[in-house]
Amino acid sequence: MLSSEMSKYSRDLYASLEQQGHGLGWKQCGSLNVARTKGRMTFFKRQLAWAKVLGIESHLVTPQDIKELCPLLRDDDLEGGIWIPGDGVVSPTDVTNVFVKLAKEKGVKIVENCKVKKVDTENRKVKAVETDLGRIECQYFVNCAGLWARQVGKLSIPRIIVPLHSCEHFYIVTKPCQVPNMTPVVRDYDGYIYLREWSGGILGGGFEPVAKPAFFDGIPDKFEFQQLPDDWDHFQVLLEQILHRIPSLNDAEIRSMLNGPESFTPDAMPIMGESPQVRQPRDNNSYSIL
After folding, report:
1. DSSP letter string, 226-251
2. Whether residue 158 has a cis bond before it, omega within 30° of 0
3. DSSP H helical segments within 70-188, as ranges?
4. How many Cβ atoms from other residues are within 10 Å of residue 217's Cβ?
């Protein structure tokens, strides 16, 4: 329910900002979740019920419908799926730049290359934040540091527990191979994969059954814009499923593999709200799978 509400909020926000003239790269191509089993279809029927409550247009579809919506897909092993026509995609970089611009217009000051060294507390309330550029007095402190959130939680006394750890997350991008621009986002949960159009090709990745944890000895310094090494052996289970779902990709040329850390919580749900250890700090982390 929470993830659906947040996805709807994000979708509506992006579409609204795009209509206002802010270039987010918003493309309403729809999303198509496919099912290989009757159990998965039962899950989609439950999702459809939630979608109706939230006012999200959604439709159960047959394998024949799936082939019409996305001719690239193999459908002979599918029970059906769920089609959400209002969904779409954006450019992450453009979204970030637009949010920064709008925040600055409202008086927000953004300081980059500033490392948090300590979160000062008094009577179990936040008092100030010590950084390598100076001290900031504050009434509220929001920890939205992503994969660094656990480390930031340790900077206060008492320590704030943020149960979150990163795993290596892999995806590939093919060279252009005549993929239609409005190809829907595809999720094949039974095959662990997701797919979307990218510059005339396909971006494909997934969440493999046995994940590969990252950073056993802590996150390296200056890792903000770095990537992790390729691991084609580990990615093989996902690559097989990508080629299974879109057979034409067997003839496509892969432009690049990307591997970056993505943080997860034990129950795969986001961490939100006030900390139980210190009163004012808010956590807002781990949105990897929404």
Report:
1. --PPP-HHHHHHHHHHHHHHSGGGGG
2. yes
3. 92-105, 149-153
4. 5
> Can you read off the two tokens belonging to residue 158?
């008492």
Using CA atoms, how far apart are residues 83 and 80, in angstroms rounded to an integer? Answer: 10
User: Tokens 């093989």 correspond to what residue?
Assistant: 236
CB-facing half-sphere around the CA of 148: CA atoms within 13 A: 15
**Per-residue pLDDT tens digits for 84-94:** 999 999 999 99
- Write out residues in the chain with pLDDT < 70, as ranges: 1, 280-290
Query: How wide is the angle at C-alpha 51 spanned by C-alphas 45 and 52, nearest 5°?
Result: 95
Q: Distance between CA 249 and CA 253 in Å, rounded?
A: 8
pLDDT given at position 221: 87
Helical packing angle, 38-54 and 2-19, nearest 10°: 60
Question: If you search the block for the tokens 């990163």, which residue do you land on?
Answer: 166
CA 31 to chain centre: 15
| Nearest residue to 148 (alpha-carbon basis) of 132, 158, 162 | 162
Q: One-letter amino acid identity for 51?
A: A
Give this prediction's pTM: 0.90
Where on the phi/psi map is residue 2: left (φ > 0), alpha (ψ -120 to 50), or beta? Answer: alpha
The tokens of 106 are what?
């409202």
Rounded Cα distance, 255 and 102, in Å: 34
For tokens 């998965």, the residue is: 40
Instruction: Supply 79's token pair.
Output: 């029970």
Please name the residue that has the structure tokens 């439950």: 46
| Contacts with 2 (C-beta within 8 Å, 6 or more apart), sequence order | 269, 270
Q: Which pLDDT belongs to residue 214? A: 95
Q: In whole angstroms, give the CA distance from residue 6 to residue 15.
A: 14
Contact 280, 125 (CB under 8 A): yes
